[in-house]
Amino acid sequence: MPITPQELIQNLGDLPPLPQVAAQVLRLVADPDSTTDDLQKVISTDQALTSQILKIANSAMFGMMREVRTVTQAIMTLGFSTIKSVVIAASAKNLYSRGSVGLQERILWEHALVTALACRGYARSLRFPRGEEAFVGGLLHDIGKSVMGIKFPERYGALVRQAYNERLDSRTLELDTFGFDHCMVGEALLKSWNLAESLEAAVRWHHDPGHAPEGHQVLAAIVALGNQIPPQEAGAQGYMVSQDQSEAEALAILRLDETAYGEHRQTVFELLDRDKGMIADL
Ligand SMILES: [Fe+2]
Ligand SMILES: [Fe+2]
Description:
- With 282 residues, the chain is mainly alpha-helical.
- It is 68% helix and 0% strand.
- The chain has 16 helices and no strands.
């Protein structure tokens, strides 16, 4: 029997919090009165975050022409909205690396990164104006898996290994074992982090975008397509692409026929090829 959202929260207990500095950064970025200086001050209180931001800012992902050495420089060159993505990326990486399911953490993180880049590529190719949001949606889409790994290390670890070895759909196994899946857990986490509703919907419905509330279907569809990019395309480690209806639903939402889809996919592959270099060292 499907579980209600309330039961889900009860089952999960406390969720991993968004790191304090990241929460402050998100607040500042949303505030039209905040300045580069405010942002720089907050970020600089966290050494690990600072070095991660500089690393990400200097990665091929953002195509910098010259080296970025300070947080101020990074903010000025990347802009507020991209800095927000970078901060969320750094927080997501920590969470993706925290599960206790063995080698899966690295694979999950690389899959998240490839999906994020692919989503940004699709946004560009489809002229969807909120490219940064697509990027963050891709980055966080499977974060529920990490939360389940953190909350139920033994049971979830066994499940992930079984799905991997027997090539089964992990979502079906999740529902059978727990009564909820990583999409629901991801949505609960994003709610507790107070991120945008559109992101919650994209994470909740990345395997069935057709069920997303109407205003959020396009973003959910983009994340669904990004999720279908084979990791090898970006030189990342293998992760089984899920076999579900998500691709067909996404194409219907975006009104794409096979030919148009093929062209957009090609553009995404080309963009990924350019971003390849950074996957290994993030
Ligand atoms: Fe998923
Ligand atoms: Fe995924």
